[in-house]
Amino acid sequence: MTPSQDYIENRTFDEIVIGESATLTRTLKPEDIQMFAIISGDINPALVDPEYARSSMFHEVIAHGMWGGALISTVLGTEFPGPGTIYVGQTLNFERPLRVGDTLTLTLTCQKKFAHDHHVILDCRGVNQEGQPVLNGTAEVLAPTQKVRRPKQDLPELHLTPSKHSRFEHLLKITAGLVPIAMGVVHPCDAESLKGALMARDRGLILPTLIGPEAKIRSLAETNVLDLAGCTLIDAEHSHAAAETAVALARTGKLEALMKGSLHTDELMAAVVDKTNGLRTARRISHVFLMSVPSYPRLLMITDAAVNVSPNLLGKADILRNAIDLAHLLKIAEPKVAILAAVETVNPDMQATLDAAALCKMADRGQITGGVVDGPLAFDNAISLVAARTKGIKSAVAGQADILLVPDIESGNMLAKQLEYLADALACGIVLGARVPIVLTSRADSAETRTASTAVAMVMAHAKRQQ
């Protein structure tokens, strides 16, 4: 009986005939090499580093030798002999490498049977798409004696995504060719905030001025074995004083950007928005989260999820203009903006939908420029073309938004944190609309997150120099 595609069925010892064979054909894909490296831990650069591989004897990345060996195990365990088989031994010889795009055809042929212990010897041979030998060897197995026919089990889907570190490195490329900026780090009195400043210094992004209790900062550096070389320290008695000092230095042009340390956001922002001595401009101050989400093909900007609690229509217009200006600095020529709401239709009982409709009309009339604006859009329609098409939404923004304008701080903050903690997003945050860019991160953020945010601030500071 031929097993159906939905079942796995074995060949028992008594059913196996000498000379009987089974075959398996697979084409090598880049993700096969990556997944095998992840599972095995074998990160030999000849196998996973294209640049190094070009200097090797094969001049390109090749498959792990045991990738073919693993496919032999696949045949033994699922087809011939199949379920109930016990692997006893294996010899293998490798004759030529497999490169990405090569097709391996494995043939396992029964050579011998031993009735006294139900062992079977199988010849194992593999050839590439040109018929050239790739590997050969012998497998010895304990064949099953009982018939097994089982439904095939569904396995979880496996998706390979760039690591957070590689996404971090990619984001830092926006600073290529720029010289370090003078940045004030406000009250860096915990390990991560101090490490973030020093990491940014070491990456050539900033010349840090550390503002806070000097003795505490030096003690923290000593405890964590951190080198303060190249840093200017300004003693400030407490966090309020540190914020006021940092803002004063930024007002006079001595600092080109600020970074929040271990103090509360309210403490820093109170000094920033002070009408007399703060850093206000004619533009409303707002915040943008920049999210690199593995499952989304572009940088995603979420605004405002940290500063404006419940902005009105004019406030949202300014928040939107800030985000579009930042997108331009990040080389997004015409950012697509989705005005988020719970639904994608205008509902007079839902203020977010009314604001969205008004903002779109403002964009139509030239009151908001520089981007393509559409809304109201629910979150799924904003980031998924499939969801948008399913609902019959025709939009130049739906499914490919660069900027998400949220209704209020609560929805925005929850959205950003969900992406960071449930979707493994790399998040960085920046305050816009002030005289200088302000890195406004959570106290729980890592040093890498703070450094990524610093890269954005660096680009903004250089744009201001040019102006």
Provide a descriptive summary of the structure in words.
It is a single chain. The chain is 34% helix and 23% strand. With 467 residues, the protein is an alpha/beta fold. Among the domains are: 144 residues, Hotdog Thioesterase (Thiol Ester Dehydrase, Chain A, Roll), CATH 3.10.129; 153 residues, Isopropylmalate Dehydrogenase, CATH 3.40.718.10. An 11-stranded mixed β-sheet has the order 10-9-8-11-18-17-12-13-16-14-15, with helices on both faces. It has a 5-stranded antiparallel β-sheet with strand order 2-4-5-6-3, covered by helices on one side. α6 links the parallel β8 and β9. It is elongated. The mean pLDDT is 92.
* Share of β-strand residues: 15-25%
Number of helical segments with 4 or more residues: 15
Rounded average pLDDT: 92
Count of β-strands? 18
Radius of gyration: 30 Å
Q: CATH superfamily of the domain at 281-433, called what?
A: Isopropylmalate Dehydrogenase
Low-confidence stretches: none
What is the CATH class name of the domain at 281-433?
Alpha Beta
| Major sheet details | 11 strands, mixed
Distance between the termini: 78 Å
Strand order of the largest sheet: 10-9-8-11-18-17-12-13-16-14-15
Structural category = alpha/beta
Shape: elongated
CATH fold annotation of the domain at 281-433: Isopropylmalate Dehydrogenase
What is the CATH architecture annotation of the domain at 281-433?
3-Layer(aba) Sandwich
- Percent of residues in helices: 25-40%
